[in-house]
């Protein structure tokens, strides 16, 4: 055993760590940074080109933080229980709202869960394993993104207030059980928790349809709602995060009468590497 904490570091090289440090800094969706891509530094032509190149680089790496490509087929064939997944997603979103967690926290929890399920088969009897996985993934996501993280028991205790009578058989797991599951998930995901998500891209895409930034805050907020609502539907697992972000922004734009119509087939021109699935994802 090493005499320092170096063995706890993620299994990502220094370049990857710096890559995501920059990603987090430049795509923040706080009020102070709304419209970053629309004004200021992004006004300069060189800066705009650099921003587009940076986003293209993120798109190039997003597959490394997605479930295996055959995972949607596993759900459709029911080798992975789609109903159990849907219940877990619903629970994660309920807890996210109840605790006021960031939307990114909920998305990451589902992302970790899907990535793990695409690699490992869980026992399906009684549903306890899927519930343990959902609790553990939300715990990991909260540790990644939240400044105040409830205890593992409190994270589950709120479940009792959210459950209907029909759902009263939900399990409550001991903290040590969840911690052991955390290590199993971290190992399966190769400690890669700083994922590329649709939230990485929505600021940039929102400013593509609203360069002056007048409606950027609304577009980002509405696109966020659309992305979270889509987590239940397994058909969206066929699309990469950048495509989901583009589709969500296009949908939000269509709901804003003062913004001009954007042909979804032209959205691929927003950035190099953006897949042509944004039009299909909006349907």
Automatic annotation (TrEMBL):
Cyclin-like domain location is: 90-187
Record's keyword terms, sorted: Cell cycle, Cell division, Cyclin
- In its keyword annotation, does this UniProt entry include Cell cycle? yes
Q: Which PROSITE patterns match?
A: CYCLINS
- Family annotation (InterPro entries): Cyclin, Cyclin-like_dom, Cyclin-like_sf, Cyclin_C-dom, Cyclin_N, Cyclins_cyclin-box
Q: Please list which residues make up the signal peptide.
A: none
PANTHER family annotated for this entry?
CYCLINS
Q: Return the similarity comment.
A: Belongs to the cyclin family. Cyclin D subfamily.
Protein's recorded name:
Cyclin-like domain-containing protein
Which species expresses this protein natively? Brachypodium distachyon (Purple false brome)
Q: Give me the gene this protein comes from.
A: LOC100836992
């Amino acid at each position: 055993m090493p005499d320092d904490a170096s063995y706890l570091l993620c299994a990502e090289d220094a370049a990857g760590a710096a890559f995501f440090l920059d990603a987090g800094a430049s795509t923040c969706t706080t009020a102070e940074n709304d419209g970053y891509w629309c004004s200021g530094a992004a006004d300069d032509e060189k800066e705009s080109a650099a921003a587009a190149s940076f986003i293209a680089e993120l798109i190039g790496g997003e597959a490394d933080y997605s479930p295996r490509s055959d995972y949607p087929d596993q759900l459709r064939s029911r080798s992975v229980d789609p109903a159990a997944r849907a219940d877990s997603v619903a629970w994660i979103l309920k807890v996210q709202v109840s605790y006021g967690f960031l939307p990114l926290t909920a998305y990451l929890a589902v992302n970790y869960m899907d990535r793990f399920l695409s690699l490992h088969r869980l026992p399906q009897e009684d549903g306890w394993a899927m519930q343990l996985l959902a609790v553990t993934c939300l715990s990991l996501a909260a540790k990644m993104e939240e400044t105040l993280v409830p205890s593992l028991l409190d994270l589950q205790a709120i479940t009792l207030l959210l459950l209907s009578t029909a759902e009263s058989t939900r399990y409550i797991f001991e903290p040590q059980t969840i911690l052991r599951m955390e290590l199993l998930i971290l190992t399966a995901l190769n400690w890669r928790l700083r994922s590329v998500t649709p939230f990485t891209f929505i600021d940039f895409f929102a400013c593509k349809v609203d360069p002056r930034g007048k409606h950027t805050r609304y577009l980002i907020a509405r696109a966020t709602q659309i992305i979270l609502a889509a987590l239940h539907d397994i058909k969206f697992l066929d699309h990469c995060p950048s495509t989901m972000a583009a589709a969500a922004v296009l949908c939000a734009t269509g709901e804003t009468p003062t913004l001009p119509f954007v042909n979804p087939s032209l959205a691929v021109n927003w950035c190099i590497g953006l897949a042509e699935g944004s039009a299909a994802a909006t349907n």
